Amino acid sequence: MPRPERLGGVFRVLCLCAVFEAACLLDAGMLFPRESSSREVKELNGLWNFRADGSSNRNQGFERAWFKSRLAETGPVIDMPVPASYNDITQDPALRDFIGWVWYEREVVVPAHWIADEGTRVVIRVGSAHYYSVVWVNGVKVTEHKGGHLPFEAEIGAVIRKDPTQPCRITIAVNNTLSLDTLPPGTIQHMTDRTKYPDGYFVQNIFFDFFNYAGIHRPVLLYTTPKAHVEDITVMTDFLDNTGLVNYKVSVQGAASASLKVTLMDKDGRCVASSSGPSGVLKVTDVNLWWPYLMHENPGYLYSMEVRLMAADERSAYEDVYTLPVGIRTVNVTSTQFLINNKPFYFHGVNKHEDSDIRGKGLDWPLIVKDFNLLKWLGANSFRTSHYPYAEEIMQMCDRHGIVVIDECPGVGIKDIRSFGNASLAHHLVVMDELVRRDKNHASVVMWSVANEPAAEMPPADFYFKTLIKHTKDLDPTRPVTFVTDSNYARDKGAPYVDVICVNSYFSWYHDPGHLEVIPIQLNTQFENWYRKYQKPIIQSEYGADTVPGLHNDPPVMFTEEYQKEVLQSYHNVFDQKRKQYVIGELIWNFADFMTSQGIMRVVGNKKGVFSRQRQPKAAAFILKERYWRLANETGRLPPWTKYPCSL
Ligand code: GCB
Hints:
By secondary structure, this protein is an alpha+beta fold. The chain is built from 12 helices and 32 strands. Helix 8 packs parallel to helix 9 (459-475) and helix 11 runs parallel beside helix 12. The longest helix is centred in the N-terminal third of the chain and has 20 residues, at 4-23. The radius of gyration is 25 Å and the shape is globular. The site of (2S,3S,4S,5R)-3,4,5-trihydroxy-6-oxo-oxane-2-carboxylic acid has 10 residues, from loops. Its EC number is 3.2.1.31. It is found in: Lysosome.
């Protein structure tokens, strides 16, 4: 007779398998390109040729087929760095505020053996380009993609093999025009009053509070795989006592049959479990769980799962090797707690933006590493990817450093009733597919956020969010789902479907500006109302105040460093009462100042950062740092080197 605890273990594995089947709905994968003994990667970062299509209908590039010949042959080109937003690179205000198609192009030398070996797949991958992209190789269209924050790729072997003597010319056209069914939504407004605006004048209206930076924002690269290759891997993890469980599924392409060897290695490269076959459970004795930063002395522990595929056809034999970092951890939500590895986790973190001087939303390693150092200095254990998916490279950093992520899709600014129609919903579902497909294996990602502050009170919103949240849970039954709300109406709409209530509020800022004294009562009321209604844990997902660094006044007045400090401290007092009950986290708005479109509410961007846009601390950063380290000391187990939060 199996002992009861054994039965428990078997049951656990069976449950994990059932959940797992549900989670493998996505048919195609898109593994992050990694080099291995069977795969090569060639980065195409650097200078590209660039031209904005300034024609009145912005369509000259297509009418004159700019993709057919070298871009310099059809008009003037300038240097444009990739990755980067193009907006702040030149001195031309027309390019900063440009709306429409821009064209990028560069030539690449493709290694001869990639072309000679017909058994090699050559893939182009764009980490992200905002918003709509079309890609040609040597004048042949290879793919197009809608959506600004997620990767897309295309196999180009057949095109480059057509004439191996030609250099490989890559052309990418990118359009930043937003419509009512893009994510985020926007509208184009044509100004026809000739007494006020010149002929053909139009503007883009947006309903979100960050600059609509555009261009190729993340790395472009070519990579190879063998024809028979590992197309996707999904892992879901659990543990029982000391044994870690890694339930995996591998999908293979390009081979009628293949044999697989799956090996899990610890940090020192020692094999701790192995298996063969396209799916299975790896059992790890004496498991090192993945823990958040400041919750454990050894945070961010990652195993390496090596998948080795062997296959053959009448022509040749193929071997493909892909290694995936795997953190073993669980996530659960009760009516009052957020549990990681069955221990209560309190989010003390930030909201961020991908945003900095000059490069806009372009991926920039010095900035990424600086931001992680600042997060650690602050004692932050988490962030929300407000308001769109961040680069995969950032998600990998979070896995390694134990920074917990609420992964948000670009569903921000859904305010117009027409953005709740079928076309919008269909696109939103696809974006969630792409996001879950990309980020499902990141241990750091503990929750999906499907939207930020939608107009949830509008009648079609109920069906929209019910469908969206159900779809997301079907894609990934292991993670809770939320959408972030600001509206009291939403208390009765949409929220029933979420697992965790995320609420933004700006008491004494947008409401009762200047009246710091209202914060305690209003914040208290906010929490009590939400909890009474839903009995679900609550995260204060935004709060803060605009602050111009160096501006001082005592007693505090709005926009000064003193006022930001007071706002934070008043909120913190209430958090300290409520975190003993059902408040499970606090995320400051914002980590750093960021650029917005111009308007009477913004002084060169949003200034609610606790760091300036150049990542220098305002006075509030020290308040937050002291608090976060105190919270960490109370709730976590600090690594010896972080006892004194002075250096990394
Ligand atoms: C919010 C939004 C965020 C804004 C912020 C603000 O509620 O979610 O995108 O930037 O308020 O500062 O107004």
